[in-house]
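Researcher: I've been going back and forth with a colleague about how Membrane insertase YidC/Oxa/ALB C-terminal domain-containing protein might be arranged in three dimensions. Neither of us has a model we trust, so I'd like an independent prediction. The organism is Mortierella isabellina, in case that matters for your notes. Sequence below.
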Amino acid sequence: MSALTRVKQPLRRAISPSLSFNRYRTVQSLPIAVYCNKRCASTDASVPDQAISQTPEFIQTMLAANQQFIETFHGAGLPWWASIVTATVCLRSALTLPIAVYQQRAIGRMLAAAPIVQSWGETLKNQLAREGKIKGWEYERYNLELQKQYRAKVKQIYTQNDCRPIKSFLLPWFQIPLFVCMSFSIRGMVLAPETFESLSSGGFAWVTDLTARDPTMIFPIAIGMSNFLNVELNSMNARGKNQSFRQKTLQNVFRGLSFAIIPIAAQAPIALCLYWTTSSLYSVAQNVCFRVPTVRSFLKLPIVNKPSTTNA
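Model: Here is an independent structure prediction for Membrane insertase YidC/Oxa/ALB C-terminal domain-containing protein. You can compare it with whatever you and your colleague have in mind.
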């Protein structure tokens, strides 16, 4: 029996919109639905095969591959909780870490070009001010010409320094799909006790049943705090600079979402919380390491100089 065939039933339960639950409802506002443990969930026996067939084949394949990847570590002798943690670290290291390093290099090139852009912008203002005074330009004409020449020069400087702003936003396009696929894969495993029966005893310490919720709220709180720490680490570079209203608003929104995820994670099975916690802590470790000069030098990342301070 192939891996895709063996996990077809769990995937049907993970994807099917016909799932019904006795005590907890799906959180519709998030891309990932989180649910209570398997004892709180019931599936409709009349779910048609059309539900799984309507899902694109490549998504079914990705979810099946994720489940098989986790099972590989479990088959090697690791307990389920360690298998989930190990699979998460391996996938993040193999898929998102190289993109993060590449993105950091792109950001470094843009930061290196920023003083050139700023200096040239001041020079352009003075040049056009003199030219406009001679030619009798109105302010609207001066401003239009300034914006036109400024954009052209910035494009030229970025091209010369191999700077493309889009490269500074590559990571989410890889990290979010991985996060969603892994979450649905683990959810499908939790909802298939006949296939992954040992999940109910594959935990550790106080969380032996990975299909149940965390009664201590340790994992949900850890998820919220690690996400909040990631937001602060990512916004740390912008501190001390003139931030736009939009930037400040986005930072505050992400801070709020970090804590809003806590009650949602409280309804999720521990297996899913374990993945979310591991992924969030991986991001924290990654962001911290990217701030260490030795690590940046090893990865050939530009060294970020701290702003100099002078005593009054």
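Researcher: What would you highlight for our discussion?
Model: I'd start with this: The chain has one domain: 3-93+169-298. After that, consider the following. The longest strand covers residues 20-21.
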